[in-house]
Amino acid sequence: MGGTIEDAMPLLVRHVGVWQGEYVHLDSKNREIDRHRSTLICRLTAHDATEQLVQSNIYDWPNQTREVRYFKATLSNDRLIIENENIVGWVAPLSLDQTQRTVMVAWTKTDDPSFRYYEMITLAEDGNSKSRTWHWYHNGMLVKRTLVDEKLISRDWATYDDPSYYQYIPRGAR
């Protein structure tokens, strides 16, 4: 592995940019329990040993409520490590995928380590869309699934950036 994210994980660098899509949440019996729009702003910052992949997820519901999630990931051995006030986890390309288009994510909630989440992200061959599948577990039991389809809007994330996207803002807080 190289010393930078660009060297070590070129697949993750292909996710840099602005993505828009829709999240569909299902309960453990596959019944829809929530649906909302999303904008993800994924940034690669710095170009040295402190290089980070930084992402803001902006979720918008039909009732005009919004939530912002903010993640910073730093390279450690064969994965990116995420730690914030809500989660602790990792992101890594799936080395067994011969197409080199699949990323795995795993985390636990900081306030409830028995809550685990696993995600698979697959980038389309042309790099302009991706699909994501989440599995949510609590005390070892599947409680929810999330399906996400996203389209690349722009590689120029700075045009879409906003200082308010660099913090966690719970749904309906503003």
Explain this structure:
It is a single chain. The protein has 174 residues and is mainly beta. The chain has helices at 5-8, 10-13; strands at 17-27, 32-45, 52-60, 66-76, 79-83, 87-93, 102-109, 112-123, 129-138, 141-154. Strands 1-2-3-4-5-6-7-8-9-10 form a 10-stranded antiparallel barrel. Strand 1 (17-27) and strand 2 form a beta hairpin. The mean pLDDT is 92.
Summarize the amount of helix as a percent range: under 10%
Structural class: mainly beta
The radius of gyration over CA amounts to: 16 Å
Tell me how many strands there are: 10
In quaternary terms, these chains amount to single chain
Strand content: over 45%
Tally of individual helices: 2
Overall pLDDT, averaged? 92
**Ends apart, CA distance between termini:** 42 Å
N to C succession of SSEs: HHEEEEEEEEEE
Low-pLDDT parts are none
Q: What characterizes the major β-sheet?
A: 10 strands, antiparallel, barrel
Report the principal-axis shape: globular
Biggest sheet strand line-up: 1-2-3-4-5-6-7-8-9-10
Give a quick set of tags describing it.
globular; mainly beta; 174 residues; 5% helix; 2 helices; 10 strands; ten-stranded antiparallel barrel
Topology, pairings included?
Blueprint: H1 5-8, H2 10-13, E1 17-27, E2 32-45, E3 52-60, E4 66-76, E5 79-83, E6 87-93, E7 102-109, E8 112-123, E9 129-138, E10 141-154
Antiparallel strand pairs: 1-2, 1-10, 2-3, 3-4, 4-5, 5-6, 6-7, 7-8, 8-9, 9-10
